Please model this.
Amino acid sequence: MTTSVLVPDSLTREAEDRREATRKLGYVARAATVFRVDRLTVYPDPDGRGTWEDGFVETVLRYAATPPHLRKGMWGKRDELEYVGVLPPLRVRSQTGSGSEGSGSLRQGIVTEVGADGRVRVNCGMQHPISLPVPDGLDVAEGERVTVRVSSRRPVRAKLVDHPTPGFDVVSADLNRALSRDDAGLTIASSRYGELATTRRLGRLAERRDREGGMTVAFGAPERGLPSILDVDPDAVGDQQYDESTGFDLWLNTVPNQGSEVVRTEEALFASLACLTLTE
Model:
């Protein structure tokens, strides 16, 4: 089952400085990690962008999603990453130890080079990148995260394995493309104008989510909710089962009777994912 989250590139538009913008994105990354999001998509909101560089939101989120032992080698120094020291640690749960494929620990790596001889060079936190053969049936590309089973460090004995990498991937795509993916599953627009997330409705949504193999949840930006971004009438989104104009199966308010005038996007992520990932 795949869980995807969509956030706009205007997510940090109200931040007073780059430090605060980075901190805000850290909370988004934490929510994606806590609730085991598989893919975090940054979609364009040209009319709502703030003062930060194009690609700022995606770059910081991609950095946050990179395993700590790979960050320095992969990212170096960039203006967008000036304040990444304020990012909270994600502490992504990983699986280590023996398994059916042989003893050793599983480590995340980044493919740094793809050779013509069926081998790739992978940076997996050792002293130098290592050259590994690509198993039959496994396609990898430069820059892709992969899983490496390390059975010995001295001498190095390791191999690529077809095993899901822990954590989430960060990609960029427009809303229509993200919502039309084969693995999009149940598509939900998070909005204060949506249907209330009652216990009865959440139970039905959990059944639909499982039946459709996952879900995709979209969020808006500060002072620019999804109705504003999509230029739709807020009063017309609450009672429809499928919004053909935007591609959402439903609009949902996951913070009924909110006590604050404004629910920040990072707060909405925690509130929405907490109830939408419930199991029976």
Remarks:
- The chain has two domains: 2-90+167-276, 105-161.
- The longest strand covers residues 186-196.
